[in-house]
Design a protein that fits this description.
Blueprint: H1 10-22, E1 31-32, H2 34-41, H3 45-58, E2 61-64, E3 68-71, H4 76-100, H5 103-122, H6 128-141, H7 146-162, E4 163-165, H8 167-186, H9 190-205, E5 208-210, H10 215-218
Antiparallel strand pairs: 1-3, 2-3, 4-5
Length: 228
């Protein structure tokens, strides 16, 4: 818990818990108690309750009658659906971004691509997940559709949660493909943008490995205080 935790807004608290679920601080099947979360993040139970409702709506948590709220657990088939849905939505997003993006958004995408390529060359692979997430977030925003951007970001969060990525095998190719996406957006070519993103997602899928985590493993910890 940081000294600024008590000043978290409900949105920031929800994001903090979601981020911790994604990075594995709370395992699938683990119970999330309001008291433990409030203590860990330095907030009252009221915003925790609101955050848990949001996380349930997003599919990161699920409630059980008379038992409480638990971190959700997806099957491998359900996880595969995430990749298929992303493969259909993100090319649409890119096609729209080719004609709707602002100069500022294109500039930010180019900047993130350059940062990613620099990190690859320097071997700073720990920076790539954050940069990649931000790249696809800006790409989604550039579509000009708030709903589409929200859907794609939720998919990205869940894919990061249920899959690990073989970064060394994909890192260089992935950022070269990001460069091609930027070129298609700069050219204002929606068909090319959609095709490049379709190929990018297909190539990325080969680097994903489903995280084999079970409720039995999670139950060994038993409470949300595991991340404290």
């Amino acid at each position: 818990m940081t000294s600024t935790a008590g000043r978290m807004t409900p949105h920031q608290l929800c994001r903090a818990i979601r981020d911790d679920i994604i990075r594995g601080a709370y395992a699938p099947g683990q119970r999330l108690t309001e008291d433990a979360l409030a203590e860990h993040y330095g907030v009252s139970r009221v915003p925790v309750r609101e955050a848990l409702r949001t996380l349930e709506a997003e599919g990161f948590a699920s409630s059980r009658p008379y038992a409480g709220v638990f971190v959700a657990a997806l099957t491998e088939d359900e996880a595969a659906d995430l990749l298929e849905i992303r493969a259909r939505l993100e090319p649409l997003c890119a096609s729209r971004a080719a004609v709707r993006r602002t100069p500022e958004q294109l500039g930010r995408l180019k900047e993130l691509t350059a940062l990613g390529q620099d990190a690859v060359r320097a071997g700073r692979l720990d920076e790539l997940a954050r940069l990649n997430s931000r790249f696809h977030e800006v790409l989604a925003e550039a579509s000009g559709s708030t709903l589409l951007a929200q859907l794609i970001m939720q998919l990205s969060w869940k894919i990061a949660w249920v899959y690990s990525v073989e970064l060394p095998r994909r890192a260089s190719d992935s950022w070269h493909e990001h460069e091609q996406i930027c070129a298609a957006l700069e050219a204002g070519d929606p068909e090319r943008a959609g095709a490049v993103v379709t190929a990018h997602i297909a190539h990325a899928a080969s680097a994903y490995r489903f995280r084999q985590r079970t409720e039995d493993t999670a139950s060994q910890d038993g409470s949300a205080s595991r991340a404290s």
